[in-house]
Structures are given as C-alpha cells and as structure tokens.
Amino acid sequence: MKGLSRRRLLQRAGTGALALAWPGLDRRPAWSQERPALVPGLPAGVYDTAILDALPGKQPLIKLSYRPPNYETPVPYFKTAITPNDAFFVRYHLADTPDGIDPGHWRLQVGGEAAATPLQLTLDELQTGFEQVEITAVCQCSGNRRGWSQPHVPGVQWGPGAMGNAVWRGVRLKDVLAKAGLRKEAIEIVVNGADGPVLDRTPDFVKSIPLWKAADENTIIAHQMNGQPLQHFNGFPARLIVPGWTATYWMKHLITIEAVTKPFGGFWMKSAYRIPTGKFPIVEHFLSQMTDASEPITEMVVNSLIASPADGAQVRVGQAVEIAGIAWDAGYSIRRVEVSVDGGSVWQAAELGPDLGRFAFRSWTYQFAPRTPGKHTISAKASNAIGQTQAASLIFNPAGYHNNVVRPLAITAA
Amino acid sequence: MRGGILAAAIALLQCAAAYAGEQPVLLKDAPGHDLVENNCASCHSLDYPRTNAPFMDRKTWQAEVDKMTNVFGAPIAPDDAKAIVDYLTKNYGTGS
Q: DSSP state, A129?
C-alpha cells in the first residue's frame, strides 16, 4: 500500500506476538463509557470528550485520544510517591504504534558515525551483559498541564496527570556506548523507537540528547519498572530513562542508538519540543540545538500536586483533613513544600515523606482542621535546594510547557 | 478528491490496527464533516479536534491543518483543506 510506512509492513510481517501479549483482553463497550473526574480549567471540549478507558494491561485512565493513544493518570493515584505500572500515563505521537513486541525478536542497534564498533543487542544481552542499575525517577510529559495554559494552546489537552514516578532498572547508556567504541567526535546521541508514522512522509519520532547527558551515570536503558518488565504502553521491552529531563527524551520501544558528530536535524528536535530561549529558570541547556530564539525543552521545573482531597471535596468543620501530595524537580532535591489554607496569605511547612532519591516524587502531608464552615482555598508550593520555587503566574509559551504555577483548589466545610 | 479516497483506504487499513476497544469518535454533522473524517482519521482519532475546542480561532485551525499537510505530509487537496478549516472553525472553534 503506497503511503503506508515500510516499518508498519515489516512489523506486520515480522511479529505475531500481539495475541500472546494480550490474551483475551478487551475493553469495555461504548455504552459503559464513564466520564472521569477532571480538574477544572481545561478546554470545554475535554469535558465532553474524555472518558475513562482501560488499555490492555491498564486500569481505566483518562482517555484524551485513542489513536495515537494518549491516556492520563487520574489525580488520586498520586497519593503515593510510586505510580503503579497499570496506572502509568501513556503518550504516543504517531499512530503506527507496535501492536506487541516479541522480546525474542527485539534487537537494539547501537552505532552511528561516531561509534567505532557498532553492535546489536538482544534483550538477554542487555539484561546480562552489563551492570544492572536502578534509579527512581519522574517521567513527566513536556506538555503535562498544557490544558491549564491561559490562553489555551493546541495540543493534547493534558491535565496534571501526564506523569509518573517509578523505580527503573536497566543498564547505563554510557556502558552500552563504551562497548560500541564511542569516538571523541560524538556530540549527540540519537535514539529511535519502534513506533512510527502512518504515512511515510510524516517525520518519525526521533530524538537526540547531548553527549554529556548520555554519559551521565543516571541516564539508563531500562527494561523494568517497579520490579516488572516495562508495560507495553510504557515502552516494552526497553526505553531510555533521562532523569530530570522531560519524557520527550525517554524513547519507548527503543530500537536504535546512534552517536553522531553533527546536531541531529529531525523535526522533533528542530521544530517541536522547544521553548523560548532564556524564558525559564533552566540550569541544563542543550547547547548544540539552541538558537537565539528557542531551545529544546530539557529539565523539568520545580512543581507540586495536591493529590488529596479532591478539588470540590466536602469536609466537616473541626475534623482533621490530611492534605497530601507530591513535589518534584529536575534532580536538585526538594527542600520544602509549603501549604496555604487561606488562599495564599499564610504558608506553613508540610511534612516531607521518605526521600526516594533526588529525581523522584517527594511525598508530603499537611494536617488541616477547618474551623469555619464554607469554602477553604488550599495551595501547595514546592522549593528546591538551589532556591527555585513554583511560578506565581504563568510563563506563557506557545506549546504550553513548564506550567508550574501554584494551583489552588477549594474544599467546602460544613 | 483522490487524496481523500487514498486517505479513506488507509483509514480502513488502519482500523485493523487500532486497539480493539477504540470506539468511533463522532463529530458534529455539518458541512465539511465527511472531509474531516476522510482526511484526518487515517492518521489520528477524531478526539483531537473535540478536545482542542472551542478555543481555537480560524488562524489557529488554519495553522494546524497547514502543519498536517506541509509538515506531516497529509495528502489533503487545497480545496478540501479550506473546507476542513471552515468546518473546524465553525464547529470546534471560536467561529471566526
């Protein structure tokens, strides 16, 4: 079929693993479509389109689009610092997604013009041929909270749940690159996954990271999340983990890694996933991809989320309510979370939960017993160890990235 | 129209690849509806325009359709593209 990508045809010819991977799994029929509890402030169209829907192997998540699948994690799942695998958000750019990947046939090609000894790895070789390491890290879509942009901007209209935190297990990217004979001329590492476009002419989703980030000991190729093989929709059998940086670099269904000597010129680097240069408080920049006007999005900004109670919850006067949530940043360490129960006038320190590592969600709690009936406006604000804190007002940008504005919610005491 | 037919054929093929649970996403029945279904649904489900509503004006919808044709290579004839922008602006946009 002219126009259909070659990869799609090859995949269809090469894999019959779908039925094995998802025996008997089916989703609920249309008549049982349930509306999710959504945060306020999203475009109106989200409220009459988003449904709760379970992809194979997943809990019902907030379905924003079927094809490619974009599914958001509902806020209550963030009451815990580790996000369950079956509730972990799903994000694809292009609809030629792999139906299922046979781990026995999967291969990872490592090469490129700046690799002296290119190699090919099986899953078994990846799991046994290198030192296995673990890191707990937040995977957050660059566009998380885009739906809260004011004015609204086009794109997947994510609320706050296009993120998750997991214990990732795998091998250091730098160890794999060393085995491929990385040359000193390399400046970027280009990664591609098994997903691709429906039409040949659509730019495949391919990304690059600077060599120094690829060589960071925390950057790994993961084959497990939270002690289990990667979920299919989260990148089975292997994905890139780039702690501190947004999920656009965390390539799923990883199939090629290439060391290159020139800045990678693909659409998804040169035109997409960019922020206005100098507009955000960013420490790590991707210099070889930077221009005076814009630069690739890199690290996450410091942020927090109130996971409980829900916006609009009814509580009792005089009865203690535990306000609970999470905070995270790009790996500089959450120093404190402050909570206000009076609309932002007075802030008090929340109690921080266990430290799961500097790239992880940090849980926090705050006890509040409303003394008066009526509406109480609750806000949380996180700060990190390098003095960064959440924005008081939106730093607008056309793609709706980096929204870390303090976001109040209201509960009613009676 | 050839592009539309090609896209429709691809859409049929793609239906086989969509997940078992994908339900049809209905769009408002208005002039241009079929063009949107035939040209857009081959590459993505139609919950995209539904969720990106109603905040986009004509200029913004035009930019989206231009991106689909010029960058993503969607085979949409110029007259069809114009009708699609009209439909989206009127039914899933600010109206003007």
A: S
In this structure, what CATH number is given to the domain that contains residue B86?
1.10.760.10
The interface predicted TM-score of the complex, written ipTM, equals 0.90
- Nearest-CB residue to A198 (from B19, B23, B42): B42
Average pLDDT over residues A231-247: 98
Interface test with A, best of B22, B28, B51 (most A CBs within 10 A): B51
Where does the pLDDT of residue A34 fall: very low under 50, low under 70, confident under 90, or very high at 90 and above? confident
Asked if B20 reaches chain A (Cβ–Cβ under 8 Å), the answer is: yes
Reply yes or no on whether the pLDDT at A3 is more than 70.
no
**Domain membership flag for residue B73:** yes
Residue B9 belongs to domain spanning? 2-13+35-92
**Contact call for B72 and A201, based on CB within 8 A:** yes
The string of DSSP codes covering A197-217 is -SBTTSPP-EEEEEHHHHTST
Q: Is position B9 within any domain?
A: yes
Please report the pLDDT score of residue B19 as a whole number.
Answer: 59
Q: What is the pLDDT of residue B13?
A: 43
Structural domains of chain A ordered from first start = 1-298 (3.90.420.10), 303-413 (2.60.40.650)
A331-390 pLDDT tens trace: 999 999 999 999 999 999 999 999 999 999 999 999 999 999 999 999 999 999 999 999
Q: How many residues does chain B have?
A: 96
Task: Find the closest chain A residue to B68 by CA distance.
Answer: A202
Is B29 contained in some domain? no
pTM to 2 decimal places: 0.91
Q: Is residue B82 part of a domain?
A: yes
Closest CA to A401 of A171, A48, A145: A145
Number of domains in chain B: 1
In A, minimum Cα distance to B91 occurs at A45
Mutate to test the interface with B, among A198, A202, A204, A268 (most CBs of B within 10 A): A198
Phi, psi angles (nearest 5°) of residue A169: -125, 135
Sheet with A321-328, side-by-side order of all strands: A303-308, A321-328, A362-368, A351-352
Q: Testing the interface with A: which of B19, B42, B65 to mutate, by most A Cβ within 10 A? A: B19
Q: Which residues of A touch B64 (CB under 8 A)?
A: 154
